[in-house]
Amino acid sequence: MSFLLTRLPPFAADYSGVASALHDLGGLVVIHDASGCTGSYTGYDEPRWFSGRSSVFCSGLREFDAIMGNDQKLLDNILRATREADHGFVAVVASPVPMLVGFDVDGFANLVEHETGLPAFGFATTGLGLYDKGLSAAFLAVAKRFVAEPEEPPAGANILGASPLDDIDGATLVRLRRVLDRADLPLVSIWGQESGLDALGRAAGAAVNLVVAAAALPLARFMERRWGIPFVTGLPLDEHDEAALAVVLARAAAGEPSEPAPAPGLVPAPDDAGAGRQTVALVGEQIHMGAIRAALRRRRDGARIRVASFFAFDETLAEPGDCRLAHEEHAAAWLAAEDADLVVGDPLLRVLLPDAAPTGFVAVPHRAVSARLDHTSGDRCAGDPADAIRGAIDDILGRPRR
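The line above is the sequence of Nitrogenase/oxidoreductase component 1 domain-containing protein; the predicted structure tokens follow.
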């Protein structure tokens, strides 16, 4: 019950993270549930479901089959599906009921691979973990199974963690490609969307990895250990960020030490000592919020800016005062303690603000939090969220404290 939500909706779950990471790879993804978890992923979490094509099926798990352990029915359905269409692999993704009845997802995946002749994965997701864990698990599974050893000298760059669940959309991908162009680094693959298995299979030949979400850091570290590929974290919000990030990427690809000026989101924290400083609280995906922090410091140097996240949180990217949020009440207590002049985050997080606090709020929707609501809500930022945030700085932080 430590992650009980009473004021916020359920966040995107681990099984949605797995399915989303595999969406564009041409595999057969089977979510083993009674249809509710599959419906959450296809109907709310995954924006590509309504405009693209992907083989994601529900196992149609029923009470009798769960109690009696009738796995043959699921196997027969998978065999039929693989005969009717070509798939590069099969992924069996578990949900709460398989967890409760002790379904051996890895053993079943081995059986599927033996019967179909296709590579098969088993993901022991439970629905109790969050989407970032599913993304990380799927990225690593694909890397270990499909990425080939490089045959040529390293060249180009991979983009790691570009998931729609973290609102990496078409405009953001265009900006990321511009960064690679500035750094004279050809794109090798994008992990999270667009790239298929062929492109991901060539990922070990890259000279550098650009990590745009904290959920991809385990993948980046695995590739660094396995193939010696350095990585840079950052998410550009404007042309200044693009130029700065391109310089850091180019130096990393060339094996040179980093410049004193780090990539967006990694700007050293100023001294927070002293009373009267304006405080900004950024709540969301860690690398995205770190990039917003860097942009805000360029505009309003001296503000105390904290980052907090319910999701993947890496201490190497954190500054003093940043926080990994354990649950809803922890988040509400942290926001109350920060007493921020400005809070930036998904619009649904407003309910966690203290009632009497004179806090300004800028909505930056996060798909994993508010799902499809942010696409229809009037709170959704029009255009570049960074522009809305900068305007809010002038409007809100310019006011005297009450």
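Note on the example: The CA atoms of residues 81 and 120 lie 14 Å apart. The chain has three domains: 14-129, 157-253, 279-397.
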